[in-house]
Amino acid sequence: MKMKKQSCKKNIIAMVLMSCYAASGEAMAQNLTLEQRMEALEAQLRVTQQKLQAYEEKEKAQQHTVVASTASPLTVTTQTAHAAAAPTTEPALSPTTLKKISQYVQDDTGFKYSGYFRSGWATTTNGGPKSWAVGSLGRFGNEYDGWYNLSLKKRAWRDGDKSIWANVQFEGDLGLTQSNESFEKGMSGGGMGKLSKLYVEGNGLLPFAPEASVWVGKHTLPQYEIQQLDWKSNRTLSGAGVGIENMKLPVGAVSMAITRNDIDNYSTVCAAGASSCSDTTQVNVNIAEVRYKNLPITGDMTLELGAKYAFANQTDEQKKAQANSEYYQVKSSWLGQAILRNPVQKGSNELTLQVADNSLASQFMNISSANPDFDYNSAYYGIHSGGIGWRLVNQGEFYLGEKIIMAHALVYGRGHDLYSTYTGAHTDFETARAVIRPSWIWSRNMQTALELGYFTQKNHVDNVTRDESGYKVTLAQVYKVDTSILNSRPEIRFYSTYLKALENEIDTQTFNDGKDYQISVGVQAEVVF
Questions:
Q1: Entry pTM
Q2: Would you give the DSSP letter of residue 327?
Q3: Residues 274-315 pLDDT 10s
Q4: What does the alpha-carbon distance between residue 17 and residue 444 come to, in Å, rounded to a whole number?
């Protein structure tokens, strides 16, 4: 009991010493360089260690005094000799103290660096591997490119609780097929990079909402990923704009933003998505978005409501050209959503309902990238006639026991009178997608995973129905840093995948040599840092 009290005292003293240094350091921070701050920190750390050592020696002396008062003369003499002979060791700082030091250095320098990437190698029994229907069958063992993003964040100013930060993010894609995948070659050559974010973030600047953050520049509100299907249930592409995030209300919090997302509107003589046709005109498009989140339902269950509206700001010449059917008519589009989140069996579950019209709804029927975007990689084409689409998305993970965890992604959607890049205007669609990944937990760092995926979709237009369906089976041995499937990284996976196209009337997918199946093996690494 005494040892616990003494340990507690030591931790308290260490925290007080560090807080005293933090206070003095803050006073000097404005006039010191980074090198001077680090030297000061090291000097103060040495002083702290010396004081902790002195305190420890004092405690030991008190212990010997207590022992001496109750022990025999021979025992006291022996203990005193041992104490004198024992070498003096430098006291180890507690994890809590070290964490405070690390956080202080990070806050004091005002610099943060983070990133993500995935990379790997794969082959098949018949040539190089091809991904297919990743957004319907799942990405595990079915993606062969490499993605990355690198984020830098530097504090430019601070005054008490107020601060301004400069933010930069660079991201891109690699095909992982050739050694020379340079940015100059672009996506067709296997390499792509871009500056996806460039914005200023202010914290504590709003008198009526000091807890909220304000940003100005190239940025967006947070994107919600369906991780197993590699697309976002809700996203607005990063664009120049202004936003407010996490403004607290009596119940819940509100985030709002407006961003510029201009599009290249194609001439009607160009085939949809034709890379050889350059007859386009740039149309100014702005997207307004609002989210109301953390609405309590019952227990730990919360609700989020959101709305998005994309509208074009066109010149008179552009309106005239569209009226003459020289270019596609750029139609405004809206999206509404509700997201229900709740913990379940040591895991979590997220249920999303979305309704949209025109181009935002058209993306719901995409077999792979089903992101709810207004455009197709900044391009706009097709006849949009006010059609409506909706989809229900459920994802999450939960533990079926101490040794079994399962992640899932389930999607069902329908739409009427929408534009499809495969089947054209006035398409009705119905889609169902299911991916589950049960994993056997050998230990905290090792799992054996089995991912099963199946989807079916019907596109109906001009009294003709086109069917697409397929399934995927992936077996993998996974090295992990924790047991969670969706929330623990880094991760290294050794896998084998069987991919089968049952029907391919929509995208006419085939694998090497015209086969309708593919067997692949590979290894993939994914890391967040």
A1: 0.81
A2: B
A3: 666 788 999 999 999 999 999 999 999 999 999 999 999 999
A4: 37
What gap in Å lies between CA 68 and CA 71, rounded to an integer? 5
C-alpha to C-alpha distance for 451 and 199, rounded to whole angstroms: 39
CB 346 within 8 A of CB 400: no
The pLDDT tens digits for 191-232 are: 889 999 999 999 999 999 999 999 999 999 999 999 999 999
| CA atoms in the 13 A half-sphere facing the CB of 58 | 9
Q: Which residues of 88-111 are buried (b: 16+ CB within 10 A; e: fewer)?
A: eeebebeeebeebbeebeebbebe
Which tokens in the block code for residue 511?
Answer: 């694998």
Coil/strand/helix, residue 509? coil
The whole-angstrom separation of Cα 404 and Cα 400 is: 5
Give the 3-state secondary structure of 361-377: HHHHHCCCCCCCCCCEC
Q: What whole-number distance in Å separates Cα of residue 141 and Cα of residue 124?
A: 12
Cα angle 99, 102, 107 (rounded to 5 degrees) comes to 120
| β partners of residue 75 | none
Distance between CA atoms of 51 and 21, rounded to whole angstroms?
13
Ranges 12-26, 122-136, 191-205, 322-336: which has the least confidence: 12-26
C-beta of residue 481 within 8 angstroms of C-beta of residue 451: no
Q: Report residue 239 as tokens.
A: 């664009």
